[in-house]
């Protein structure tokens, strides 16, 4: 790729420039996110202090915005692993400039998702009962429960993503160490665990990295499948379907990829990284959005087909109600943002227009949040017995915590880009043309001839 | 009491600005019977790995070990916990191996990943003091070769590296 022919020295300099002293715009954004986290924290404290009544949850809708947020954030994390692991195994060269940011996003998204079960259980100080450990009550958790599978899946996903991310950072931390001075040199020197870039180190590093990618690939597919089984193993109408696992995984990659684009477009502009994050990168991500968007649309259609073909009145009713009932607005938002909005991406002109991509990806994320809300709430609000039907509206506390979760996610991302290289120095060099004597001799000869 | 002593390495270090020169120097050294040199690179390059013709990394053995430990722990732990505290759920088997496949899979990945990283650190000789000479430009835009040798061989390897395009040659003694 012609676009990737950079000088090694320029790559180091340009990426380390990201770690320079922050400007006012950055500090303003960081302050905004910290304040947002404080708003979310205050809402949560309010719920802890006054009780779960502060959330809109009640019979029959026991799962609402918190579980919607949980599923949404786990999904956002998927694109990072897809880009860093699956595209690594496919040797997709366009991943090298974007995988680090996407991987960091995965970690912060899973950190955000992990907060919601704790918020949702109400008595947060007992959330650790989910962990299987020997205790004086001689009790063990129920390993047959999909909720416990979730504990294993999400905690493993978080741990493996952190390991994958941290070990991948080591060569770049060494590059920072070698350019830094004073305390900074000591800190990055400690974190780079003695990396010198020898052939022995690279040999074991690349072998191990490949195995980690091979582990992360089924893991990423399993995590959202397992999250989907929280719903699919129950007998609630609209949930009890074998379609859920692939449907959720495609939706997760769809929303995650949209979030990566939403973040990288302003990031590229603010830090003047047009040279490294080219339109080609965004176009490739847009293609993945088209693919996963089509799978999501197909899954929506299949759900309706299954409901009709099953001849089950409860199943038929719930799908009818989603479109024409009390929760039709979330449904229509979901349908419009996830099925209609991505369609212009079939045109190259739209795929290569960054403002258009920005608008489309923001709308996709809105749509994906409402998809989860639609699945979770509408099914619980009107299941088998009309006598217990209910109407759920998110409370201000829930909305405040949701707002806080977005700020929490972005706060970590803003901190990350100032302390760690947001693009991989070593991997961009890997796809760049290496300095060659033959090439430089030709260039010198050409200059002399001129 | 354990003491971490590092025997100081003596040898010749060559700094290269071009990858093809480095590759040529490696070929030259290998032809003269040296295969114990250390090559420094800012990023992994398959051209260099091909010339070095190194053995496969043993990290994979630790990955396999971790994966096997994980899958065994996953099934054994869940089965033990279910038998220790019997929790009948809608007539399902007390030890439900199908359901336990999920924790077993997750632990396979977790243990496998942990041991893979352990292998990368152990075999890559990371997180320990190193006596290998180093130049800070190796993480930027320069390549390097360190040839361990006695003081009497310094001149031989210095001229070999210079002839093959080394921009700088220094002695480590």
Fold blueprint:
The complex is a heterodimer of chains A (450) and B (173).
Chain A: H1 8-17, H2 24-50, H3 65-89, H4 99-120, H5 146-179, H6 182-191, H7 199-232, H8 244-270, H9 279-310, H10 313-324, H11 328-340, H12 348-351, H13 354-381, H14 396-419, H15 425-431, H16 437-449
Chain B: E1 11-16, H1 19-31, E2 38-40, H2 46-52, H3 59-84, H4 97-123, E3 143-148, H5 154-163, E4 168-172
Antiparallel strand pairs in B: 1-3, 1-4, 2-3
Helix pairs in contact in B: 1-2, 3-4
Task: Describe this structure as you would to a colleague.
The complex is a heterodimer of chains A (450) and B (173). With 450 residues, chain A is mostly helical. Chain A has a single domain, classed as Formate dehydrogenase/DMSO reductase fold. Chain A contains 16 helices and no strands. In chain A, helix 5 crosses helix 6 and helix 7 packs across helix 8. Chain A is globular and about 85 Å long. Chain B folds into 2 domains: 11-54 and 130-172, Alpha-Beta Plaits; 59-123, no CATH class. Chain B has 5 helices and 4 strands. Chain B has a 4-stranded antiparallel sheet with strand order 2-3-1-4. By secondary structure, chain B is an alpha+beta fold. At the A-B interface, helix 1, helix 5, helix 7, helix 15 and helix 16 of A face helix 1, strand 2, helix 2, helix 3 and helix 4 of B.
């Amino acid at each position: 790729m012609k676009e990737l022919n950079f000088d090694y020295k320029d790559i180091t300099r340009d990426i380390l420039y990201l770690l320079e002293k922050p400007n006012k715009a950055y500090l303003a954004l960081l302050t905004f996110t910290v304040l947002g986290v404080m708003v979310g924290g205050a809402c949560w404290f309010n719920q802890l202090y006054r009780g779960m009544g502060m959330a809109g949850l009640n019979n029959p809708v026991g799962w609402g915005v918190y579980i919607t947020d949980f599923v949404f954030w786990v999904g956002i994390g998927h694109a990072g692993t897809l880009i860093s692991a699956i595209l690594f195994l496919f040797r997709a060269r366009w991943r090298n400039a974007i995988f680090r940011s996407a991987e960091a996003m995965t970690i912060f998204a899973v950190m955000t998702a992990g907060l919601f079960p704790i918020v949702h259980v109400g008595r947060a100080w007992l959330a650790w009962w989910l962990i299987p450990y020997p205790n004086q009550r001689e009790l063990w958790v129920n390993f047959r429960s999909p909720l416990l599978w979730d504990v294993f899946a999400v905690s493993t996903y978080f741990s493996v993503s952190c390991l994958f991310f941290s070990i991948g950072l080591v060569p770049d931390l060494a590059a920072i160490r070698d350019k830094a001075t004073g305390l900074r040199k000591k800190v990055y020197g400690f974190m780079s665990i003695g990396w010198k870039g020898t052939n022995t180190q690279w040999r074991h590093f690349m072998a191990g990295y490949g195995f980690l990618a091979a582990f992360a690939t089924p893991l990423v597919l399993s995590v959202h499948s397992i999250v989907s089984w929280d719903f699919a193993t129950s007998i609630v109408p609209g949930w009890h379907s074998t379609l859920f696992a692939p449907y959720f995984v495609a939706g997760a990659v769809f929303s995650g990829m949209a979030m990566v684009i939403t973040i990288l477009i302003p990031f590229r502009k603010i830090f003047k990284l047009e040279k490294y994050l080219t339109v080609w990168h965004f176009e490739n991500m847009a293609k993945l959005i088209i693919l996963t968007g089509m799978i999501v649309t197909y899954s929506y259609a299949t759900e309706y087909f299954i409901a009709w073909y099953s001849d089950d009145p409860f199943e038929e009713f719930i799908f009818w109600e989603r479109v024409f009932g009390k929760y039709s607005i979330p449904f229509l938002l979901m349908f419009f943002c996830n099925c209609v909005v991505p369609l212009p991406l079939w045109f190259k002109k739209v795929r290569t227009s960054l403002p258009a991509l920005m608008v489309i990806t923001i709308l996709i994320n809105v749509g994906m949040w409402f998809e989860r809300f639609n699945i979770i709430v509408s099914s619980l609000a009107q299941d088998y017995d009309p006598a217990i039907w209910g109407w759920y509206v998110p409370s201000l506390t829930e909305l405040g915590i949701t707002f806080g979760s977005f700020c929490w996610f972005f706060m970590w991302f803003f901190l990350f880009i100032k302390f760690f290289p947001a693009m991989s120095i070593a991997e961009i060099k890997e796809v760049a043309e290496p300095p060659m004597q033959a090439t430089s001799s030709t260039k010198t000869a050409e200059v002399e001839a001129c | 009491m354990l003491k971490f002593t590092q025997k100081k390495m003596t040898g010749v270090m060559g700094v290269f600005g071009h990858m093809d020169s480095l590759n040529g120097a490696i070929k030259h050294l290998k032809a003269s019977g040296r295969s114990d040199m250390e090559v420094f690179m800012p990023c992994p390059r398959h051209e260099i790995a091909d010339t070095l013709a190194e053995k496969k990394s043993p990290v994979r053995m630790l990955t396999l070990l971790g994966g096997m430990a994980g899958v065994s722990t996953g099934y054994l732990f869940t089965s033990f916990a279910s038998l220790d505290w019997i929790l009948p759920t809608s007539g399902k088997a007390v030890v439900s191996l199908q359901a336990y496949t999920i924790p077993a899979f997750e632990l396979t990945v977790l243990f496998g990943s942990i041991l893979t990283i352990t292998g990368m650190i152990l075999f890559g000789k990371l997180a320990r003091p190193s006596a290998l000479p180093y130049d800070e430009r190796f993480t930027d835009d320069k390549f390097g070769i360190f040839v361990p040798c006695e003081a009497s061989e310094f001149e031989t390897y210095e001229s070999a590296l210079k002839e093959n395009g080394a921009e700088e040659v220094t002695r480590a003694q």
